[in-house]
Design brief:
CATH class of the largest domain: Mainly Alpha
Number of strands: 10
GO molecular function: ABC-type oligopeptide transporter activity; ATP binding; ATP hydrolysis activity
CATH superfamily of the largest domain: ABC transporter type 1, transmembrane domain
Membrane topology: Multi-pass membrane protein
Number of domains: 2
Main location: membrane
Number of helices: 22
Organism: Flavobacterium aquaticum
Strand content: 5-15%
InterPro entries: AAA+_ATPase, ABC1_TM_dom, ABC1_TM_sf, ABC_transporter-like_ATP-bd, ABC_transporter-like_CS, P-loop_NTPase, Type_1_exporter
Helix content: 55-70%
């Protein structure tokens, strides 16, 4: 059994009753599919005046004799009806029996499919939910190595492929095999000799189909991978549309997209061709066998005779037999098609479980403590940290007392933003510790750690929603008055109040309807509303114009009073009032002190201030 099939079985458990009902109705469908053709025999017998005449009512003996009893009773009733009311009434009876069996066959087919639909869509929903939970919980580091578009393709396309293709397996193991089994049983009871030909057909057909479909799983996997790349190209192109247009790079992006869709086209055509071959191949092989049956069976009806001159096989039974033989073709075709679909489904399931089984390296310990307050200090002790091979921070230590503002400055790549990533546990330190009030942040629950912190990043990340919903992200029960107060602190209410719908205004995709400075002020308002004891500002004012920066700087200074703040700054004018300024260079502390102390040193910080004063 395929490993990915085993992994999907737990997802079926909540729908166990639906799976059982699907199996029951599939078995009933298979039974009545066979009976619908067997019921043609008495009808043909009545039509051709060959109905077996039974004048005495048969006696029921035991369960093992029920088939014979049912047949004898039907022919007894036909004989009685014919003698009392004429052949027309007998014909009406058998026609009603034929209609009833076909009606029940199709009713059970519908009910079986109905319960399968509940299973398919339920598992689709559960897989999507689990996968979204997983991709939200995975650490930031995972997405620095993966294409977001590929993750989206697995979330949307591959799970859908599992739904559409994989669940063919329920038909593959129950409905179609049972149809074939019941049909062959009926065929053997009519003529064992003729049925031997069918046993030749099935293994040959199976062998040919398995040969054709051998490479299907690997090709499906490659197609799904390519689909992920394609979505990545679209997602990146839309995200960077301004850059694409400003650099006249449309041709380059379109070429990349076209190369991907052409590769996908070739793979899709190859997969579809093999899929399309399954059904006609099995049907043609079936028709060849039926042609042989017609010849051989026709001889048994017309030429070969028993000792008493009767034909070896009655015409009515032979016609019903041919109907049964053709009845095998439909499930045989369905099995061959489903076996192909299952291969595609398994390839898609493999990509889905690849993400579901990724180990989340940043999780809560079993005995993690819930920290609800900040009392003393943040201590960063002897940290060595690397994203790849080279250390970004080297033996780095820093204390941030409660209520103080510590600013980190330095060139790009000096490790400033890495400190913010480690404090929030977006990444975990490899060596050394980060402690809050003497407790290692790895020993706290992630939720309580992040509740203590407010983060304003260089990139103002906003969602396609109203201003109100964007700001209350960290405090969902906030009132409109609290939201407006936070907007005022962030110097954002002046522009929000003149918008058509005020705080109920939708700001578009990634806040596209607002300017860079307006977006950043909303990000600051969001952090203000959360009101955490520790504030991390990662280049928070970098997107603001000079006038807005002054207003927001005053607002930030007000907000940072009696609050612990870590300010990562490029513009040194924004951090002159910090209690401590730490100058970083290549992951190490170069200088530290107040603004005046560092100027007096006449070192790196002094040079940076001089350079910026001439900008």
């Amino acid at each position: 059994m395929d490993e990915n099939f085993k992994k999907i079985i737990p997802y079926l458990k909540p729908y166990k009753s639906n799976v059982i009902l699907n199996i029951i109705f599939n078995i009933l469908y298979a039974l009545f599919s066979t009976l619908s053709f067997i019921s043609l025999i008495p009808m043909l017998d009545v039509l051709f005046k060959d109905a077996e005449k039974i004048v005495e009512e048969p006696v029921y003996t035991d369960i093992w004799d029920i088939t014979s009893y049912g047949k004898d009773y039907l022919y007894y009733y036909i004989t009685k009806l014919t003698e009392e009311n004429g052949a027309q009434y007998a014909l009406l009876l058998v026609v009603c029996i034929v209609i009833s069996t076909f009606l029940l066959k199709n009713l059970f087919n519908y009910l079986g499919l109905n319960y399968l639909t509940i299973v398919k869509n339920g598992v689709l929903k559960d897989l999507r939910k689990n996968m979204f939970d997983k991709i939200i919980q995975l650490p930031i580091s995972y997405y620095s190595e993966k294409r977001k578009g590929d993750v989206m393709a697995r979330m949307l396309g591959d799970i859908n492929e599992v739904k559409n293709s994989f669940f063919s397996i329920l038909e593959l193991v129950v409905k179609e095999p049972m149809t074939i089994l019941f049909t062959i049983g009926a065929m053997i009871s009519i003529s064992f000799k003729l049925t031997l030909f069918v046993f030749v057909f099935i293994p040959i057909s199976g062998f040919v189909i398995s040969k054709i479909g051998k490479s299907l799983k690997s090709k499906s996997g490659r197609a799904q991978q390519e689909n992920g790349y394609l979505i990545s190209v679209v997602e990146e192109s839309l995200g960077g549309l301004k850059v694409v247009k400003s650099y006249n790079a449309e041709k380059n992006i379109i070429s990349k997209f076209n190369d991907s869709i052409n590769r996908l086209l070739k793979l899709s055509i190859s997969i579809e061709r093999k899929n399309n071959l399954a059904s006609p191949m099995s049907e043609f092989m079936g028709i060849v066998v039926i042609a042989i049956l017609l010849w051989y069976g026709g001889n048994m009806v017309l030429v070969d005779k028993l000792a008493n001159g009767e034909p070896i096989l009655e015409g009515s039974k032979f016609l019903a037999y041919m109907g049964l033989a053709y009845n095998i073709l439909t499930p045989a075709k369905a099995i061959s098609k489903a076996s192909y679909q299952v291969k595609s489904g398994l390839a898609a399931a493999e990509r889905v479980f690849e993400i579901l089984e990724v180990e989340n390296t940043i999780t809560n310990k079993t005995d993690a403590v819930v920290k609800t307050s900040f009392e003393d200090k943040i201590a960063i002790e002897n940290i060595n940290f690397r994203y790849a091979e080279e250390n970004v921070l080297k033996n780095f230590s820093l204390e941030i007392p409660k209520g103080k503002t510590v600013a980190l400055v330095g060139q790009s790549g000096s490790g400033k933003s890495t400190i913010a990533n480690l404090l929030t546990r977006f990444y975990d330190v490899q060596e050394g510790t980060v402690k809050i009030d003497g407790i290692d942040i790895k020993d706290m629950t992630l939720e309580s750690l992040r509740d203590l912190m407010g983060l304003v990043t260089q990139d103002s990340i906003l969602f396609n929603d109203t201003i109100k919903n964007n700001i209350r992200l960290g405090k969902e029960d906030a009132t409109d008055e609290e939201i407006i107060a936070a907007l005022k602190v962030a110097n954002a209410y002046e522009f929000v109040k003149v918008l058509p719908n005020g705080i109920e205004t939708n700001i578009g995709d990634a806040g596209g309807k607002l300017s860079g400075g307006q977006k950043q002020r909303l990000s600051i308002a969001r952090a203000v509303l959360k009101n955490p004891p520790i504030m991390i500002l990662d280049e928070a004012t970098s997107a603001l114009d000079t006038e807005s920066e002054k207003f927001v700087q005053v607002a930030l200074e007000n907000m940072m009073q009696n609050r612990t703040s870590i300010v990562i700054a490029h513009r040194l004018s924004t951090i002159q009032k910090a209690d401590k300024i730490v100058v970083m260079h290549k992951g190490e502390i170069f200088e530290q002190g107040t603004h005046d102390e560092l100027l007096a040193l006449n070192g790196t910080y002094s040079k940076l201030v001089m350079m910026q004063s001439f900008e």
